[in-house]
Amino acid sequence: MSGIKVVTIGGGSSYTPELVEGLIKRYGELPVQELWLVDIPEGEEKLNIVGALAKRMVEKAGVPMKIHLTLDRRQALRDADFVTTQFRVGLLDARAKDESIPLKYGVIGQETNGPGGLFKALRTIPVMLEIATDMEEFCPDAWLINFTNPAGMVTEALLRCSPLEKVVGLCNVPIGMQMGIAKMLQVEADRIHIDFAGLNHMVFGLNVYLDGENITEKLIQQFLSGEKSGVTMENIVDLGWEPAFIEGLKILPCPYHRYYYQTDRILDEEMEAAKTKGTRAQVVQKLEADLFELYKDPDLAVKPPQLEKRGGAYYSDAACRLIHSIYNDKGDIQPVNTKNNGAIQGIPADSAVEVNCVITKDGPKPITVGELPVPVQGLVQQIKSFERVTVEAAVTGDYNTALVAMTINPLVPSDKVAKQLLDEMLEAHQAYLPQFFEKVDV
Ligand code: G6P
């Protein structure tokens, strides 16, 4: 391979400067000659602003990477080597509905694995499968690196319902946990290694090592001191864990586990926030507006630190690290979303799991975990059932299947509430759900 071509779908995203920074940093070993930023007409203004910043960043860094901006996805995909996806169907307005409608029913919306996540999946999966079809036509040998949320379900759909085989899902939660722990211990992040296993936003740290020494127990003690755990993301309030619970669990939960193990407290926080500063979508809308004002500055030629206020901060490090390892056949270990293939017992072989993998030029090879610890097996399986049923609903547009998905989500209290939620959310998102509303009688 010479002269790598990367295509980023959703290139007008406020996160793009992270990706560009990551590619610039690694240029020596990962010579990306073309970066195509693709968006839709509604995103054109943002694409132009962030694209101009990307061009200034590349020029300042003095790397010969050519940035192309386009609204023509099919043209962009031609002969790509890596395709990254980071788009939001319906933009942040749709997320605001995903978060606020459930709150009216006393339910957390959670845009990735609550009722909000169900709807985000229903909107996103059909679009992602169209992208996969275009890739099959224009760049069948390319790798698809997906960070579009809900990353677990989107990756599941790509693995099971698309013709593509070279698909990897990525999230910043594992890298965020590694960095949080490093900060807590005041050491460099690369001295920390974590055995990750589970699902996207449902991943556990089974063991944590510092310079090869297993420090899980010690860390759990540190986790216990203090009101804050020290390991969270910008988008999730850092409520401390009940010490005896984590001590009994003996493994590290991820920040998203708060939604399941601290449901009432998180709900209170979100209700309160909705009254004062707005839901996270509304907070992010303001943050984004500020970021794009900064991006417009013709003197700005680096990623501004304000981007770290977004929950997805550092995702590009994970993405560039992964692309780098595939391209260079590194054989290093990274946590990614990939086909289980028996790595985690009790999860179907063809399902997506988030697990440590050896990264080679042939993609991620999952490291066998075996059984997850008994206390978490059930929840992980429950979420996997929710994910699989959601994927089926997204592909078929079948109402009853969507209702089953909504009802089995652990954040939803009953079938009745599930139906009320489903009906109101289907109506609110109708414009982005053709599979439910544009049925042709045969
Ligand atoms: C986390 C998740 C990402 C998600 C982000 C939301 O970090 O891992 O999947 O996109 O938070 O952040 P935001 O700033 O949009 O609330």
UniProtKB/TrEMBL annotation:
Binds 1 NAD(+) per subunit. It comes from Desmospora profundinema. Its cofactor is NAD(+). Its EC number is 3.2.1.86. This is 6-phospho-beta-glucosidase. GO terms for molecular function: 6-phospho-beta-glucosidase activity. It comes from the Bacteria. Residues 196-412 form the Glycosyl hydrolase family 4 C-terminal domain. Keywords: Glycosidase, Hydrolase, Manganese, Metal-binding, NAD. PANTHER family: 6-PHOSPHO-BETA-GLUCOSIDASE, 6-PHOSPHO-BETA-GLUCOSIDASE-RELATED. Belongs to the glycosyl hydrolase 4 family.
